[in-house]
Every structure is written in structure tokens, then in C-alpha cells.
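ok, trying the design again with the full structure, not the truncated one.
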């Protein structure tokens, strides 16, 4: 049988197959367009071609630069750079702490004696640790003690220089570093799921109590800020004298803030 005769005899069957194939092709195309998963794009979601344009990026960069400049200024106004005598040494660290602490205490007592200021030996104190890291922290604290006593006596000298009848500094009741145990208790109470402040800075705290007249108090407060050697005033309580001519009693908490190098 030739092809022409086959077509003539099976025309209906061939037309049905053609129509069925065409319907299958159309159906497959429709199903594929409905159920084929494609990743959404910003354009398909109706978003603009650029989520952040150049002006927004420039504004973000300007804000970041402003924050960095403000942080730099804050560090410059608050930082306390430890003196070399308290940060470098030869030989055992505990021996250096002992000798440095003894020399500092003797110097404070001698300065008080020269000015007829009452200071008890037990009023000056700090922890005596054994670990090198704790020794290093206490040495920075001794640097803070040294700065505070120096500025306190200088305020006394300035007051007496202006008026030799002024009382000036009368007594130092306490000059003590915060204990390491208190420091660890504060650290353990902090949450550890965020930025740890101890990774950014080291803070030493000093409890100070003294008696002096008002000009000496004012002079001491003015002397706290010094470039690269700022002593931060955390708290300040003044008990005024009951009678004119008597001295004020002051309780203060002072800190030295040492910013750590981010490269370390």
C-alpha cells in the first residue's frame, strides 16, 4: 500500500493524533509555566534596580566618618596613658610591684608630712596579686594613685600659695584601689553575648576620701583633666562644714581608662 492510499484510508485517525499532540504540547507549556520554580528577583518583586543609590551610600560613609571622628575625640579626652615606670620592668613582676608600691607609699607619706597633712599608713592600699596579668593591672592602678596624690598635693600648694592662712588639704582618709575581687564580680555579672567592654579598655578605680577647704577642692577638680593622663571623676560627695572656717569632707571615686590597641 502506498502512502497516499494509507492517508486516504486513515485520514480521521491521523487528524485525531495531530490534534492530540497539539493539545499535549499546549498543556505541557501551561503546566510548566505554573509550577516551575524560579528565584524571585528585585525586578519581579517590584523593587527598583538599585536598592541603595549613590546618595544613600555617600550619606552612610559620611555618618561613619563622623562617628569615627567623635570616637577619636572621646578617646583623646578620656584616655589615661600609663607611665613607663608602671608598665615596663626587668626581673620578676611581683618584685617590681613590691618595690614600686613601697616607693610610692613612702613618697605619699613624705609629701603629707612635709605639708602637715594627716595620712595614716593604713589609709593607702591595694591588692597584692600573684598572677602577671593581675600584677600588670595593679601597677596601672598605682599609676592612678600616683597621679591623684600628686594633683591633690599640688592643689593644696596652690591654695596655700594664694593665701598662707588657708587650711588647704588637712587629711587624706583613704587612698585605695578597688579590689580585684570586686572587679571580677562585676565582670561575671555581665552578659557575654555582645561586645565585651574588657576587650576594648582597661579601667582602674580608686576610692578617695580627704578633708580640705573649698579652694583646694576646686583646684583638685580642675587638675583632673590632663592630655593623655585624664583622671575620670565617677562620683563626688561633699559634706559641708557645720561652722565657717572648717574643712569639707569629700568622698570620691576616680578612674583611669586605658584604651586597648584594636590591632592587638
Amino acid at each position: 500500500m502506498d502512502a497516499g492510499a494509507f492517508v486516504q484510508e486513515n485520514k480521521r485517525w491521523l487528524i485525531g493524533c495531530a490534534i492530540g499532540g497539539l493539545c499535549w504540547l499546549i498543556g505541557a507549556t501551561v503546566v510548566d509555566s505554573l509550577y516551575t520554580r524560579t528565584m524571585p528577583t528585585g525586578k519581579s518583586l517590584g523593587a527598583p534596580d538599585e536598592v541603595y543609590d549613590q546618595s544613600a551610600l555617600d550619606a552612610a560613609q559620611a555618618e561613619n566618618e563622623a562617628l569615627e571622628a567623635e570616637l577619636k575625640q572621646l578617646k583623646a579626652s578620656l584616655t589615661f596613658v600609663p607611665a613607663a615606670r608602671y608598665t615596663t620592668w626587668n626581673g620578676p613582676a611581683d618584685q617590681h610591684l613590691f618595690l614600686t608600691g613601697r616607693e610610692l607609699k613612702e613618697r605619699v607619706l613624705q609629701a603629707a608630712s612635709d605639708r602637715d597633712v594627716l595620712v595614716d599608713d593604713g589609709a593607702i592600699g591595694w591588692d597584692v596579686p600573684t598572677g602577671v596579668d593581675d600584677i600588670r593591672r595593679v601597677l596601672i592602678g598605682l599609676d592612678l594613685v600616683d597621679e591623684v596624690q600628686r594633683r591633690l598635693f599640688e592643689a593644696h600648694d596652690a591654695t596655700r600659695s594664694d593665701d598662707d592662712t588657708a587650711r588647704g588639704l588637712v587629711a587624706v582618709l583613704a587612698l585605695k584601689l578597688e579590689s580585684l575581687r570586686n572587679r571580677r564580680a562585676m565582670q561575671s555579672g555581665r552578659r557575654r553575648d555582645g561586645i565585651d567592654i574588657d576587650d576594648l579598655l582597661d579601667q582602674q578605680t580608686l576610692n578617695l576620701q580627704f578633708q580640705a577647704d573649698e579652694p583646694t577642692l576646686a583646684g583638685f577638680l580642675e587638675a583632673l583633666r590632663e592630655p593623655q593622663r585624664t583622671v575620670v571623676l565617677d562620683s563626688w560627695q561633699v559634706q559641708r562644714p557645720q561652722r565657717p572656717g572648717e574643712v569639707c569632707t569629700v568622698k570620691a571615686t576616680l578612674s583611669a581608662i586605658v584604651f586597648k590597641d584594636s590591632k592587638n
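Keeping the full-length input from now on. The longest helix spans residues 132-162.
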